């Protein structure tokens, strides 16, 4: 989670006084160049990676906007990459 937060991929909710009905958006705290690369990787992963495409389809079916679902896909890619680095093993999708 800290890696995703470092890259600015965690949702934040802006509140002001009594207005709490605003949509959440990505915090954008990290480097924008990395976020741009993750965005393109997420777009491709929604078609090619079974784990990411399943999550993307599930979020879209629940009525989430496309960019919100892509933000979740970007975050999932960071979690996958961190898991691969931490375990020092090859990535194997859950479906296989």
Automatic annotation (TrEMBL):
Transposase IS116/IS110/IS902 C-terminal domain: residues covered? 1-55
What is the organism field in this record? Vreelandella arcis
Protein name in the entry: Transposase IS116/IS110/IS902 family protein
A matching Pfam family: Transposase_20
Single GO term (MF) = DNA binding
GO annotation terms (biological process): DNA transposition
Which InterPro entries does this one have? Transpos_IS110, Transposase_20
